[in-house]
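User: Tc1-like transposase DDE domain-containing protein, Chytriomyces confervae:
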Amino acid sequence: MPEHAQQAVLGSKASENTKIHALYNHYYHEKSIPDIARIYARRPETIRNWIRQSQQTGPVSRGIAGAGRQPTAEQRLWIREYFLDSPFSCLDEARAAFKSKWNKSISASHVWIILNDCGMQWKAAVEQRAIHLKETEIIRFASEINSLSWTLYNIAFVGEASYDKQGMFRRRGYALKGNELVVRGEDYDRRPQLSTLTFLGCDGTLDTFAADGSFDRDTYADNCRQFALEPRRVMQYPGFYSIWIFDYAPEHQTAELVMNLRGLGIIPLFFPANYPFFNPMEVFFGLLEKRLRKDYSEGKVNAENLMLLVATALTHYRNYDFRPTFRQCGFVHAGGFDPSVSCESNAKEMGFH
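Assistant: Predicted structure for Tc1-like transposase DDE domain-containing protein:
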């Protein structure tokens, strides 16, 4: 036998096909074990092991390492849900929790592979924040608004936002693989910001006031009074847009502003603190920011035409159906605010766990 052929036969493990032929010679040709060992260049003890294995278990192929120990679909889903609930867990902590739950061992590398298969990656935390939620505030707001007679056309949401070029820059772009995306230019310097005060109804934005920099308390109150005196848009309670809902900012709860609005037939209400998922205005600001990033042309916007860019984006939502958004935030039907709808549907989407 040539040397290379001898090494190929003697230096490798027998395949399943070789074992089947050896068993065929033993059972059907009635050859002795020494003869079979000589034919296949194996020791007699090896042939006896093949025969014994076929008599005990049937198959003669070698067992696959790890066979029968692979996580099931339910266990893989459990690992995914574990990291969704505890995103800062280490792989070793997940492995220990998996063993405690399923009484089965798993390696940290296997946990990492399962996470990648589920589309999850290790990322730095974008934001960490402390939130103090009070059920009494939710009950207070629900009791106040449900004690009034209202429809979706009675309520208007009031929101203030600030814009500058830094918030409009696109955060992602295309670059060659292995290269970082670095952009430099004069357009990235700081410029004065623009602030807007927007009134939102179920059929879109009702009116918007703008100011350079930030609104002071007097300007804010004057703009609210100016919108309240528009006879074609705002009526006294229980007319159209006669219930105004503000956020919980202290400057919006001044006694002077509340008394002036009540004197004009407007009923002001205030959202509970730290519950933005009750406020359709937060959804509107998210849509507006996404549109501004799409329409913004780097290097072509300055302090003079920044207002034009914001006004153009606001015009898109002048006649926009926000009724589905109102319902998702808990304003489900006329005269009925249900906070459980918003807490279940929007909390995680807005980053609250």
